[in-house]
Structure formats: structure tokens, C-alpha cells
């Protein structure tokens, strides 16, 4: 199969690569992608050490689906804000990620090795030589990913991508260094890494924290009553978050702290999976450890070492129950999505809806 590429000169130079029309070639395999548009690459150099600021985008033609990929359009429902990190549609997974990587190889300086599938969830992680390739589902806002990486440029603890994201017809591809001999960090090290991350990025120009945004993408799968209850619960929680204030101040929060997202590699501790980094109350990153302590996952000694390493114990803060409720409702939304992905029902939903009629 041949790809045709052309360099287009002008104020917005671009490399446009297309495959032949579908009718002129064999159906795609699991590692092939049908290009529904053109890759536009702005080759202007980035600042030293920063990912290229270019916006790489696939311009999808209008018309019927091509290989199951419908052009992504903004959500037109009243009051619904487009999620820059949407959950994948049912069926999207490793085969799509491999197809996205094959398409992105046109512009990515990656090894020609065979990729290894490392994990499949809301994104797919592949290992390719010394690179970690993370593929996001179609509809992901590449500009959002690029803006976060640019805002965190020079981070001593955040693992950043090597260059700007690449948008393909099967997903958005981001390449980062593969951490050799990586293992989950212990909680005291997580506390120290969070302290440094928060200190380094107090004034980072990252997007504002908008929790529970993913509910909008699940509304169509919910009964009307359940949807109304969860929407009301989210509204109540967002109002409570705004009223709770903060003791530690606002800054760049990681947004998804867990031992799986803080890794130890060759003597250094790294925060990975920076997808949800946003400007919000710093306490939010500390509540994960507090909830695990309450659940018995962390013993007294481990939790107190975490608090000493960071320099704060969030348990005495009056706003903590609000952030715990935000995290709890977020878990409900993820469970709904997971049931939908696996094609199973959600018999637990009725009880959950009852709980969220009084969110606080």
C-alpha cells in the first residue's frame, strides 16, 4: 500500500499525506488506518526543550462514516461543554491504537520496531523501543494536550511528551520517553514528588479544573430520571467546590494521583499520565491518599509519612468532603462507561441514583 505525500508551501506549510481511495485497495488490517483527511504539520521549531507548538490535525471530509470513523462535531446540546478528553466509543481499543500509530509514523521520529500493547483502558499505551506511545480516542482535543505540555515545560517531576500530539483518523498519538525499570512509587515519595510538582507549577497556565465533565458523554445511555439526578448532583457539587475555598491555594493539580501514576525509575520519581492536569485547589491531589487511609489501604505510619513528605494533612480541612464526593461521583461515571464498553447492564445504577439525590 502506498501513501502519497506533498509539501505545500505558503504561510501555513504542511505535509499532507493520503492513502489511495478505499475502493482501490484491500480492506485495512488491524494495523492499517483509513485516512479520512490530511495530516497538517507546521514544521516551525519549538523553544529548546519544549514540544513543538504545531497543531497537527486531521481534516475529516463530510459525508458517511469511513471505516467506522465519523467526523467529530461539537456537542450542540444546550449547556454541554465539549470534553477535551472524551471517553472512547464502544469497541475502540488496541487495534485502533495500532492503526493510529501506523498512520502517525509518517511524521513521528520513532523506531521501526513492532509495538507492544502495554495497557488498554480509556487510552491505549504502547511500547516502541525507548518510547512510550499513548493513543487517545478520536475526538480528543490535541490542542488541549499540547497546551498542558507547553505550560509544564521544564518540569522536574512531570514526564512530558517529546513533541506535539499527532491527530490521525483512529486517534491522537503522543510519544513520551519510556521509563526503564519503572515501578510504582511508595507513598512518601509520592508526597515529595507532589510537593515539588505543585511548587514548580504554581503559576502554570493550565486549563481551569472542570470536574465531572465526562457525565455529558454518558447522558444518552442513561434513563431520563437517572440523568436528571446525576446532572443535579454535579451542579450541587460544583457549587460546593466554588464555596469551599482552599487552605493551600490553587495551582497545577495532577488530578489523578495513584501509585500507578507516580513511577520510580533509576533513582528519580516521575508523575505520569498528565492528561487531567488543571488549575484547581491543591488539596485535591492529597485527598486520594486520605481516602485510601480511611478505606484501610494505607496504615497510620505510611499515611503520616506521606503527609510529612508533602507538608500537609488534608483530613482536617472542612472542604475535603466536597472533593471526596467529586471523586466518588467520578467513580460512578467511570463504572457506567466501563459497563457500556463491556456490553453489560448496570443493575447497580438504581441504588447509585438514590445515593446522589442528596449529594452532600
In words, what does this structure look like?
The chain is built from eight helices and 14 strands. Strand 6 (124-128) and strand 7 (131-136) form a beta hairpin. Helix 4 runs antiparallel to helix 7 and helix 4 (224-244) crosses helix 8. It has helices spanning 94-104, 142-151, 187-200, 224-244, 283-294, 300-310, 320-342, 349-356, and strands at 4-8, 14-18, 39-40, 57-58, 116-120, 124-128, 131-136, 166-168, 171-177, 183-184, 250-253, 262-265, 268-271, 278-281. The N and C termini lie far apart (58 Å). Helix content is 31%, strand content 16%. It is globular. By secondary structure, it is of the alpha+beta class. The strands form five sheets. A five-stranded antiparallel beta sheet has the order 5-6-7-9-8, covered by helices on one side. It has a three-stranded antiparallel beta sheet with strand order 10-12-13, with helices on one face. Strands 1-2 form a two-stranded antiparallel sheet. 36% of the residues are buried.
Secondary structure: elements and pairs:
Blueprint: E1 4-8, E2 14-18, E3 39-40, E4 57-58, H1 94-104, E5 116-120, E6 124-128, E7 131-136, H2 142-151, E8 166-168, E9 171-177, E10 183-184, H3 187-200, H4 224-244, E11 250-253, E12 262-265, E13 268-271, E14 278-281, H5 283-294, H6 300-310, H7 320-342, H8 349-356
Helix pairs in contact: 3-6, 4-7, 4-8
Amino acid at each position: 500500500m502506498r501513501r502519497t505525500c506533498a509539501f505545500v508551501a505558503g504561510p501555513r506549510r504542511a505535509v499532507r499525506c493520503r492513502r489511495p481511495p478505499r475502493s482501490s485497495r484491500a480492506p485495512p488490517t488491524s494495523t492499517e488506518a483509513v485516512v479520512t483527511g490530511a495530516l497538517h504539520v507546521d514544521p516551525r521549531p519549538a523553544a529548546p526543550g519544549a514540544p513543538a507548538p504545531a497543531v497537527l490535525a486531521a481534516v475529516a471530509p463530510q459525508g458517511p462514516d469511513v471505516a467506522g470513523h465519523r467526523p467529530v462535531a461539537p456537542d450542540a446540546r444546550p449547556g454541554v461543554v465539549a470534553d477535551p478528553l472524551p471517553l472512547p466509543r464502544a469497541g475502540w481499543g488496541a487495534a485502533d491504537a495500532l492503526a493510529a500509530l501506523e498512520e502517525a509514523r509518517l511524521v513521528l521520529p520513532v523506531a521501526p520496531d513492532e509495538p507492544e500493547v502495554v495497557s488498554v483502558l480509556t487510552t491505549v499505551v504502547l511500547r516502541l523501543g525507548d518510547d512510550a506511545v499513548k493513543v487517545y480516542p478520536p475526538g480528543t482535543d490535541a490542542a488541549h494536550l499540547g497546551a498542558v505540555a507547553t505550560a509544564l515545560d521544564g518540569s522536574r517531576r512531570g514526564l512530558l511528551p517529546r513533541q506535539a500530539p499527532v491527530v490521525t483518523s483512529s486517534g491522537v498519538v503522543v510519544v513520551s520517553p519510556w521509563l526503564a525499570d519503572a515501578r510504582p512509587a511508595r507513598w512518601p515519595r509520592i508526597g515529595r514528588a507532589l510537593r515539588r510538582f505543585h511548587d514548580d507549577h504554581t503559576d502554570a497556565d493550565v486549563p481551569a479544573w472542570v470536574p465531572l465533565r465526562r457525565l455529558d458523554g454518558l447522558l444518552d445511555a442513561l434513563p431520563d430520571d437517572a440523568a436528571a439526578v446525576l446532572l443535579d448532583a454535579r451542579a450541587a457539587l460544583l457549587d460546593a467546590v466554588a464555596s469551599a475555598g482552599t487552605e493551600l491555594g490553587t495551582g497545577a493539580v495532577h488530578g489523578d494521583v495513584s501509585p500507578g501514576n507516580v513511577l520510580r525509575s533509576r533513582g528519580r520519581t516521575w508523575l505520569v499520565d498528565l492528561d487531567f492536569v488543571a488549575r484547581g485547589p491543591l488539596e485535591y491531589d492529597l485527598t486520594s491518599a486520605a481516602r485510601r487511609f480511611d478505606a484501610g489501604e494505607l496504615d497510620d505510619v505510611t499515611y503520616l509519612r506521606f503527609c510529612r513528605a508533602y507538608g500537609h494533612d488534608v483530613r482536617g480541612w472542612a472542604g475535603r468532603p466536597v472533593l471526596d464526593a467529586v471523586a466518588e461521583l467520578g467513580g460512578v461515571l467511570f463504572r457506567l462507561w466501563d459497563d457500556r464498553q463491556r456490553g453489560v447492564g448496570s443493575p447497580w445504577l438504581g441504588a447509585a441514583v438514590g445515593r446522589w439525590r442528596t449529594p452532600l
